[in-house]
Amino acid sequence: MMKKIGIIFGLILVAGCLGGYSPDNRFYSLQIIGNAADKVLSSKNFSVGVKEIDLPDYLDRPQIVITESSSPEVKLAEHDRWGNDLSAMMQRIVAADLSAYLPKAEVKAKTELVENFDYLLDIQIVRMDFVWNEKAVLEAWWYLTNNDGKIIKRQKFYEEESVDKDFASFVEAESKMLGNMSYNIAQALAKVKK
Q: SS3 for 106-130, per residue?
């Protein structure tokens, strides 16, 4: 009898392992804007350090965040994730976008404490989420400081883009809005006298 129970239990265990389905994870990456070369804003030589992007806690995770238009509830897409640390990815994308708008400037992610730049860029993300089949939102504050630590420009950025009911549409919209914010920052840098 015990042998039969053991066999049945073993079969149930094997069936559970074989029958369970876990969907594959999908990974996404923000993209560098494509038409920045047509929008060169300055040919001045200066250096810009893009500091690590500051994210709110609810975004500082691998899962993509979804919101509901009529609810304060925030949902995490368990199988749709960022392909890299979101803060580091955004830092790299903004630096690349700024480099395209300011081709003579040296723009790079600030990674070392001892690096010196003419200007430092600090970005604080407030919102970066989307509602299914409605809109994606990017809300942020950005600050430019000179090498003396004085804030020379501070500005809020808010933009919405229509999205479909898929994550690729959201990532494309966020890439576009991040590029638009980079363009605003590049405009400010182009007007600053070194």
A: EEEECCCCCCCCCEEEEEEEEEEEE
Q: Do residues 185 and 100 make contact, with C-beta atoms less than 8 angstroms apart? A: no
Query: pLDDT by residue (tens digit) across 50-63?
Result: 999 999 998 898 88
- List the domain boundaries for the chain: 26-191
Bridge partners (DSSP) of residue 158 are 139
Helix (H) or strand (E) holding 148: none
Greater pLDDT, 164 or 39: 164
Arithmetic mean of pLDDT, 64-83: 79
CB 162 within 8 A of CB 132: no
CATH architecture of 26-191: 3-Layer(aba) Sandwich (3.40)
Q: Does residue 13 surpass a pLDDT of 60?
A: no
Q: Is the pTM of this model over 0.85?
A: no
Cβ atoms within 10 Å, residue 3? 7
Q: Whole-angstrom Cα distance, residue 9 to residue 93? A: 53
